[in-house]
What we know:
This protein is mainly beta. The protein has one helix at residues 2-25, and strands at 28-39, 42-47, 53-57, 61-71, 76-91, 94-112, 115-133, 139-141, 145-157, 160-168, 170-177, 180-187, 190-198. It has one domain (27-198): Beta Barrel (Porin), CATH 2.40.160.20. The protein is built from one helix and 13 strands, in the order αβββββββββββββ. Strand 2 (42-47) and strand 3 (53-57) form a beta hairpin.
Amino acid sequence: MKKIALVIAVAIASLSSAQAQTAQANPLRFVVGAGLTAGGDKLATAEYSHGGSVDVRAGGLIAFLGGVDYRVNQQFSFQGTVGFHVDQASAKNGDVTFKRFPIEVLAYFHPTNNMRIGGGVRYVSSPKLNGDGFGAGVYQEFDNTVGAVVEGEYFFSPNVGLKLRYVKEEYESNYVYRRVTYTEKTKGDHIGIFGNFYF
């Protein structure tokens, strides 16, 4: 009985060691993901002929990302991604779109093997609101901006994660009226839910 227990203990130790070596040997993984976001100030409203309307907001609506995830050790990891974030109201006769390209660098603490919490910075490049067709008169460019991210992620498996997040950011745009330049500020704060795949 003692021999069997010893064999089992050695097998478990060997398996744990092998997993740790694998994690250390391959700490860098790629990540792709997509999610839904909600929030931010209203930028434009599209009204439809049947009576309905859709708001385009500075914190909406669909986001895609791709990048790398680096596991420093069992407790800490980092992630860097480049994404595309867009909200749109569209119809057969035109659309209004707010699009931007976020770059994020995040750090995480792992309280368990299946969960991590963290945050970091988000740099948003080329934020722009424009329209065509029924939205042809809509156009506004915003300055690039830096925001903050706080999020938690749960792993259903080593390759599949679900994250909830909060982003705080603000967009600025300048316009001239009677030879005076004014700055308009727009809140882009939003919450989001993302599904990520790691490989």
